[in-house]
Amino acid sequence: MKYRQLGNTDIKVSEVSFGTWAIGGTWGEVHDDESLRALQVAMDEGVNFFDTADVYGNGHSEELLAKATKGKEADIHIATKFCRQGDIHDPKTYSEEMVRQYCEDSLRRLQRDYIDLYQIHCPPTEVLKDGRVYEVLDKLQAEGKIRYYGVSVESAEQGLLCLQNENVRALQVIFNIFRQKPLKELFPAAKQKGVGILARLPLASGLLTGKFTETSTFAQDDHRSFNRNGDAFNVGETFAGLEFAKGVELSRELQWIAEGRETMAQAALRWILDQEEISCIIPGFKNVHQVTQNLAALHTPSFTKEELERLQKFYQESVHPHIRGVY
Question: What is the residue range of the signal peptide feature (predicted)?
Fold first, then answer.
């Protein structure tokens, strides 16, 4: 395992870390015993950072992390998120009373004294412009409830807005071969400010594994079914904002990236790791096999200059025009 500095914090995170949305719910069938085994395998392989949120399984992911990391709290870093248990457009959701309650609830579920990275969970742009929520986070940091804070954003523009606050230490962004926009302005600006970048949805909800066809189906409780067109939350969170059939078609055109790299998924993860601004990738998982497959990206050959140029052209000409939502 290799480790990278999380921006200008004193935390070093494993290049391949993991997100825990899938083991909490809304990704189809999942079993806690298998989730815990997968978490253990990840830690045995050197993974020292996990991302979660209070709404993943209504706190269930946080509880699983508490079980998996018991006795390892000093060595395993956890990032969690808040605000989506309330009305994200209501200013009260970001009041000191509510944020403090969200924080205390997460600490209780995580069975920890502090949260390594506390993130605002995809708030509306007006909340970021208002900025008063940062004052609350500054208080929690001063009290030792959180070590650092950051923001999980939906768009590059939101990310640039967050960088105006000097205490924001990390940005979590949707970034993958289908979502390359952050490379242009956001990543260079974050690097200049010393802000870490967590790349979420690195496989575009599974599209970049190459395993789906136009007739693939998903369980009713899987967001790839109920949020396919943004009916439950931002459309960009599902299939990178691409209409499913179009995403499958585009993924088929990308099969060449697996040549000499074992699998398409490992190649897609390697492409992200090759970007110097990235602190870590946080793919999801539901079992041990998915953990080990994602970790294999560490040993996957990097892309050549010509390949990188080909992927950039593919994004600009074939993908970008079809992404829906604000990104």
Answer: none
- Residue 203 phi/psi, 5° resolution? -110, 15
Give residue-wise pLDDT tens across range 111-140. Answer: 999 999 999 999 999 999 999 999 999 999
Q: Domains in the chain, start-ordered, CATH in brackets?
A: 12-322 (3.20.20.100)
DSSP letter at 69 equals: T
Give, in order, the Cα–Cα distances in Å from 7 to each of 35, 44, 118, 192, 194.
Answer: 29, 25, 15, 10, 5
Q: How far apart are CA 167 and CA 248, in angstroms?
A: 40
Tokens of 193: 């400010």
Q: Is 305 in a helix, a strand, or coil?
A: helix
- 101 alpha-carbon distance from chain centroid: 23
Residues 6 and 12: their CA atoms lie apart, in Å, by: 6
* C-alpha to C-alpha distances, 52 to 118, 161, 315, nearest whole angstrom: 10, 23, 29
What is each CA distance from 32 to 35, 37, 57, 161, 223, in whole angstroms? Answer: 5, 9, 12, 38, 19
Angle made by CA atoms 284, 298, 184, in degrees to the nearest 5: 75
What phi and psi, each to the nearest 5 degrees, are found at residue 10? -100, 20
The span from the CA of 202 to the CA of 191, in Å, is 20
**Tokens 């069975």 correspond to what residue?**
111
Residues ≥6 apart with Cβ < 8 Å to 68: 36, 39, 40, 43
pLDDT digit string, tens, across residues 16-58: 999 999 999 777 788 999 999 999 999 999 999 999 999 999 9
* Residue 106 CA from chain centroid, whole number: 18
